[in-house]
Amino acid sequence: MPVSKVNLIFHPVRLDIISALSTQRMTAKEMAQIMPGVPLTTLYRHINLLVEGGLLEVVEEHPIRGTVERVYALAGPPSLRAEDLVGMTKKDYEQAFAIFLSSILSDAKNYLASKPDDQEIDLFADGVEVTKLQLLLSDDEFRTLNAQIFELIMSASKNGPASDRHRRMFSYIFIPVGNRSG
């Protein structure tokens, strides 16, 4: 039975794979290097599910010592549409939010783990930015802001590797707060 797009995206390992491929094409071996806690067999299983679900595609194949090394890329932006969410319950949404938020926590833990215990951590020098604020926006203003953010992110996601570029995780979420008026 095919896995729903929501279940494909909102799984901790698959969410990490999608994030890794959001800026570049990679082999499973390259993904394994940035996800050392995921066994290679597990990684391949989740990659195959994402390929079967149409979220990833094989963009290159290279014969290596009797086997084929595949290079993967996103098949397109992994966004959800209204029809993908039909039938989800409140509990399903809570689980999706929990997986998304736990992936952010995992990113933060990986960042902190990359620092030696005796080294002072300088969030600003490392480019860590954490912001939480409320905005008063009409529905049209919200859609415009969200489209502008998406456009900027998609533009930046086209950057190729360079000596002065560092892998940075960007996550954002908009959630309505309380009543709809200011």
Whole-angstrom Rg = 18 Å
Shape estimate: globular
Following the backbone from N to C, one meets helices and strands in this order, namely: HHEHHEEHHH
Quote the distance from N terminus to C terminus.
Answer: 46 Å
CATH superfamily of the domain at 5-122: Winged helix-like DNA-binding domain superfamily/Winged helix DNA-binding domain
Biggest sheet strand order reads 1-3-2
Q: What proportion of the residues is helical, as a percent range? A: 40-55%
The count of DSSP E runs of length 2 or more, i.e. the number of strands, is 3
- CATH architecture descriptor of the domain at 5-122: Orthogonal Bundle
Mean pLDDT: 89
Low-confidence stretches: none
Main beta sheet: strand number and arrangement? Answer: 3 strands, antiparallel
- Class from helix and strand fractions: mainly alpha
The first-level CATH class name of the domain at 5-122: Mainly Alpha
- Might you state the CATH topology name of the domain at 5-122? Arc Repressor Mutant, subunit A
- Total DSSP helices: 7
Relative strand content = 5-15%
